[in-house]
Design a protein that fits this description.
globular; nine-stranded antiparallel β-sheet; two-stranded parallel ribbon; alpha+beta; 232 residues
Amino acid sequence: MILDRLMLFLGALMFGGVVLAHAMKPTGSIDGGAPAINLAAIVPQQFGNWRLDTTSTPIAVSPELDALQKEVYGQMLVGTYINQNAERIMLTIAYGGSQSRELQVHRPEVCYAALGFQLLSQRKTTIANLTGASPIPAMQMVASQGFRNEPVTYWIRVGDQVVRGNLELGIARLSYGLRGHLADGLLFRVSNITSNNAEGFDLQQQFIRDLLASMTTEKRRALVGSLALPDR
């Protein structure tokens, strides 16, 4: 009798797994056929006290990592901005049209490790949004390689949600999957090279606020989803 009940229980679990897998099979995107995001058109080359520094060269990546990034992301925007005090912020935005498990956005801590950096610290935080808007969930970490100390702030947008870390990313993908949708995804990352991590994070936050303040609601929504503010 006990064996029969055990077999019945296991059979129910297997059947439930099949049903769940079928329910999570994506049937369409969440954007309803909206135009594809154009990162170059969304992010200005000059705003507030910041302008794109055309003399800066981004870190070179290995051919293997470069190929993987091109497979995962449909678009990438990489650049360094400089302000009137000669302070620099490195910006990376990567966009992928479908966040399946195989093609989901890669968290920066994984990419930095692949580039040979050591991860010194990592914590969840929130970034002050524009006045009246909810704070932006974000991850802050410090990566080091030789004499290079690099504070990093990032978040990931999945569909209309902003998440941080692997668990929140997985939950967001699951929530869309259960509704039969395949969400798009965007990684927003800023960093700078400094020995003072607190000052580095403060400068990054100011950069983010200046950038969001310079954008229309539609463009902000591409970066922060439902946390975007209406035009004033």
